[in-house]
Write a structure and sequence with these properties.
Blueprint (H helix, E strand, L loop, with lengths): L3 E4 L14 H16 L4 E6 L5 E13 L5 H5 L7 E12 L8 H17 L6 E4 L4 H9 L3 E2 L6 E4 H7 L2
Parallel strand pairs: 4-5
Antiparallel strand pairs: 1-2, 2-3, 3-4, 5-7, 6-7
Bound molecules: coenzyme A.
Length: 166
Amino acid sequence: MKLAIQALEKKHEKSNFDCGKSLLDDYIKKQARQDVSRDLSACFVLVDEANVVKGYYTLSSNSISRNDFPEPLRKKLPPSYTDLPTILLGRLAVDKTAQGKKYGDVLLIDALKRSMETSENLGSIAVVVDPIDEGAQAFYAKYGFILLPTSGKMFLPMKTIKDLFK
Ligand SMILES: CC(C)(COP(=O)(O)OP(=O)(O)OC[C@H]1O[C@@H](n2cnc3c(N)ncnc32)[C@H](O)[C@@H]1OP(=O)(O)O)[C@@H](O)C(=O)NCCC(=O)NCCS
């Protein structure tokens, strides 16, 4: 099966998407195109040769309160930044028929690379995720995402991401 990652378009078939989490299924089926058209988020889909969506992720600009960041990181930043610019990887999901084949890995790496490229034109100190449950938290922790205890969100510093692609 030959797969590609593309920006979400009308031609992509998503009506049977099922990752096991109804919130994430409903989002791609009912809301993603509308959010993209309103410039609320960008959505990238992993599709097969028949344009059937096997996975997706979303990115949007975002900020995190300085007080939510761990002290060692906070100390290095000028105090004038009360909110720190970040990129939100809002959702990431793989269809059940494709889970366990490293496509989650492929989508996450693609999202991090795209975020790094974006940060060359729009300053962002980290990529932030908001894990849907403990399983999702464990998935992101595997890649080095650090928990922000105050919000339950997790982040990966842009510096770490840049080092990853050096
Ligand atoms: C989480 C999810 C995206 C992973 O995608 P996947 O294609 O099944 O995962 P991969 O095959 O790419 O696995 C990559 C690595 O993550 C690990 N992993 C996958 N799911 C995991 C989980 N729930 N908890 C911990 N680790 C997990 C795999 O074991 C693998 O590790 P390895 O390289 O050491 O073998 C997918 O299971 C999914 O869509 N789940 C439902 C939606 C969801 O929870 N999304 C999370 C973001 S909100």
